[in-house]
Amino acid sequence: MTQRLSAERRREALAALPGWQEVAGRDAIAKTFTFADFNAAFGFMARVALVAEKLDHHPEWSNVYRTVAVTLATHDAGGVTERDVALATAMERIAAGSG
Ligand code: HBI
Questions:
Q1: Is residue 1 part of a domain?
Q2: Domain containing 47 — which CATH number?
Q3: Which GO terms describe its biological process (predicted)?
């Protein structure tokens, strides 16, 4: 089972993830993405969903019009693991492509 990140590794990972923050009171990371419109936001979610399935690692997220609020943690580990870093990194790549 993947282990929770050390404080040092979490800081290092967050430094490489633009706009991601630690969640107060929970071992999780979060970011709200804003897109041009709902269509772009939903397209982002659709593409991330395919990656989440491939990684077998799924976001906690909500969509309001052109924003997608995302929280990542590994439920099995009770906190942030490398799987969350991998999914966040994939989300950044997808968001950059969808502009
Ligand atoms: N997604 N965020 C997250 N955290 C998990 O622990 C997790 C998951 N997706 C699938 C998954 N675990 C499965 O491996 C377990 O439910 C068996």
A1: no
A2: 3.30.1360.20
A3: tetrahydrobiopterin biosynthetic process
What ipTM was reported for this prediction?
0.91
| Mean pLDDT over the full length of the chain | 96
Instruction: Report the length, in residues, of the chain.
Output: 99
Q: Is residue 2 part of a domain?
A: no
Q: Which of 76, 80, 85, 91 to mutate to test the pocket of ligand 1 (most atoms within 8 A of CB)?
A: 76
Beta strands in 1-99 (DSSP E): 21-22, 29-34, 60-64, 67-72
Q: Into how many domains does the chain fold?
A: 1
Whole-number Å distance, alpha carbon 74 to ligand 1 midpoint, is 6
